[in-house]
Fold this sequence. Notes:
With 297 residues, this protein is α/β, with parallel strands linked by helices. It has 2 domains: 4-75, CATH 3.100.10.20; 85-295, CRISPR-associated endonuclease Cas1, C-terminal domain (Four Helix Bundle (Hemerythrin (Met), subunit A), Up-down Bundle).
Amino acid sequence: MGWRTLFITQPAKLSLLHNSLVLNNGEEYTIPLNDLACVVVETRHVTLTSPLIDALANSSAVVYICDEKHLPSSVILPFHAHSRQAGVARLQVLWSEPFKKRCWQKIIHAKITNQSEVLDPSARDDITYLCSLRGRITSGDATNIEAQAARAYWSMLFQNFTRHIDEQDIRNSALNYGYAILRGMVARAIVGVGFLPAFGLHHCNELNALNLADDIIEPFRPFVDALTRELLDEDGEELPLSLPMHYKTRLLELPSLPCRIGKMETTLSYACELCAESLLRATKAKDATLIETVSFV
């Protein structure tokens, strides 16, 4: 399991040599693939050789390609990451509606629990309100408690803030950047155990190739929220006009942040893998209670 993050912001050529990534930008650097947890190609002026792309796809590293706004827009995933992928896929497409609804109920319960942990501990009334909403989640979240909790949560977390894709608000930019990093980690983990990421438990958009990742990511999102608020608090009241480099650098530390899953303390990156493995166990046993969700330490 890798531990290093490679963030490429300058023109360079990346190639493969003896199971290592070779970066040449006038000077040459060699990094063993096994050391890499995350590679982010931010600049549009990077050349990657096809042997390296193949090796990265089949390594444990998550590789992100950024768009013209310098936000992660795609992730490299392998086609055959699991020896019994066809068998897992057959189990996945046979998920019953009750099973999917019970899974979604547990996922949203964990998400709202983590959201309450992000809020200021002195805001007892706000935390109590979120916890009361959490107790009303039904199978499949039929009454959309998730949305009710989200409206309350964002107003509690940030002042004068509306959560949407508007990049002009630096808070949205930071959240979007962090969520993109998480989404790639989760997608890599679910493909790694044999699931098809397009088929979700709750999300079912035909234009979305990562519906299942968008399901599993939900309890992980508050970790991005907490880190974003921490960065904003460090900068004071005046918000930057665009996403600063030190925000990106800190958000790229997400894979190594500590967390808890089940009774184990680990990193967010490994928690994604454990969560995917627990979903596979739940799928085989047809028991949604076997899904393990992430929480703060």
